[in-house]
Amino acid sequence: MPRRCAPLLVSVALLATVAVGDEKANVPTSVHLTQSLANVRSIFGDKYAQARAIRSPTERDEALTKLVDEILETYDSTIQSADRYALLQVARQIAVYQGDFETALATIDTAASRFHIDALNMKASMLTKASGSLASTGEHAAIVPFILSVLDETTVVGRGELSKSLFKAAIASAARARDRKLVVELQKQAAEFAAYEQAVSTLEQSPADPDANLKAGKYLCVVRGDWASGLSNLALGADEQLQRVAVADLTETETPTEVAKQLEIAELWWKIADGAEDVEQKAFRNRAKMWYEKVLPELPQQGLTYKRIKSRLEEASADAGDSDAGSKLASTFVGKYIYDATGKKPGNSVYAVWEFRDDEVLENSVPIAKWTVSDRNRIKIELNDGTSEPMLFAPSRGKSATGSREADGDTWRWRLDRLEAKTWEHKTESVKVFGREIDGGTENLTFYSNGRINDPLGSITWRLQGNKIGIDWGDRKSTEATIGAGGTTYAGATWQPTGFGRTRLKLPVTGRLISAGD
After folding, report:
1. Are residues 334 and 310 both part of a single domain?
2. Among 382, 402, 418, where does a domain finish?
3. Do residues 63 and 173 share a domain?
4. 295 and 232 in one domain?
């Protein structure tokens, strides 16, 4: 089940991510971790036992959710490294027991931002183990999307053994969920991946092997959608038609020449697609579509070539997976997100706002990438720098995603969280101090889901613990308030420096919710 959010702001990021410049810690030693786990269980053990003993499934789940929230709040205020690791581990175990795999995976992402861990291995291990312990059809159906999300990551970064175990778990759970169509599809994907792995193994010994290059190239381009990597394999492959168009495609991509050449490449892909079947046909037509879209603006709109290309673009769009599900995903994913990435190299980190529009991604209002929904209803992002591999993922409930990628000579762990906001009217009351009137005032504050106010990358921050809201304005100015029962008002005080030593004024404040939106 999804985590319940406090009324102040929907879809608040689950956990604070590591700040820019923070250094990761090593995983605690077994001695320290054992002691910390004992401390955590001594604090929360009784509450956990009481929650599990509740007979009503709904009430039991609510109690466990509340307990996990309390543990994560304790994590936020804990400094000692071993204790923080232990708190995340216990929260994850309870979340798995609940079947709340979204929260469980998020705790691993948070641990990866703070500690040197193999996050993919931890995720795969957790999901495969959980899959084997589930009983009901509904539980198995619920875990499959999470397995597939992590599977996308492991296949992209070449974690073959993890991918095999995840394929096995996904197929087993799909079968227990009685989804025969999905079982057949996953078995096909597993076989394709195994063939690709064998091709890669062959290429390690014989880089020019034409059959291995063809298999690897088709898998990368057709299955994974990674044309930047796969075209070079197709250019060395055993299929002469694909070899010819791949060489032309690579050459034109690196050094664009003229419209006629680009049109020729599009026509070649379309011709090859006509002789292909099913998934390959869609992939090749989609590649032709990419080149046709480059050419179309340069052609006279009244010409026959222009009309023919327009017709083919419409046909390719219909074939490329613009199904109801794909269209729905595309429409729901449009919006603003916080992109938070950390590299393995010290100091490598990015924290930015990514906005997904039509087919374009903007970072802090600057276009940086193109994005589409693949034929398997996954989001694919191709960055404009031409050097980074595509990002391919299935978003969790359309609001968040995690992954890793190779770029700029480093391995990056990244996370996307939808940026949502609510606007509150914030009123400061006037007060008298030593007979002098201190004027108050009213302003509108936009609370963003990444814990910032008015500017998602700004310095004013807010935090929420239970029904307590805190605002850090900077320069020793802070606000502490309590949210009302209806979740649409708050009342408290702002502590403001006087300018004389460390003394501060206490100014009464109130707030009321006035609007919600991105």
Report:
1. no
2. 418
3. yes
4. yes
Contact between 106 and 15 (Cβ < 8 Å): yes
Averaged confidence pLDDT in the chain: 84
The number of folded domains in the chain is 4
pTM, 2 dp: 0.62
Q: Which pairing describes strands 477-483 and 489-497: parallel, antiparallel, or unpaired? A: antiparallel
Single out the residue of 223, 220, 224 nearest to residue 246, CA to CA: 220
Chain centre distance of CA 124: 16
Closest C-alpha to 292, from 272, 275, 317, 274: 317
Share of the chain above pLDDT 70, in %: 87
Q: Say whether both 41 and 163 belong to one domain.
A: yes
Rounded-to-integer distance, Cα 388 and Cα 409, Å: 10
Q: Give pLDDT tens digits for 451-477.
A: 999 999 999 999 888 788 999 999 889
Per DSSP, the three-state class of 278 is helix
The identity of residue 327, as a single letter, is S
* Same-domain check for residues 57 and 189: yes
* Closest of 285, 314, 400, 392 to residue 354, by C-alpha: 400
Residue 249 placed within a domain: yes
Alpha helical stretches, state H, 219-258:
227-234, 240-254
User: Residue 474's domain spans which residues?
Assistant: 421-517
Cα–Cα distance for residue pair 487/165, rounded to 1 Å:
44
Tens digits of per-residue pLDDT, 3-51? Answer: 433 333 332 333 333 333 346 889 999 999 999 999 999 999 999 999 9
Is the separation of the CB atoms in 375 and 321 below 8 Å?
A: yes
Indicate which CATH number applies to the domain containing 348: 2.40.128.120
Q: Are residues 12 and 449 in contact, defined by beta-carbon separation less than 8 angstroms?
A: yes
* pLDDT in the model for residue 325: 46
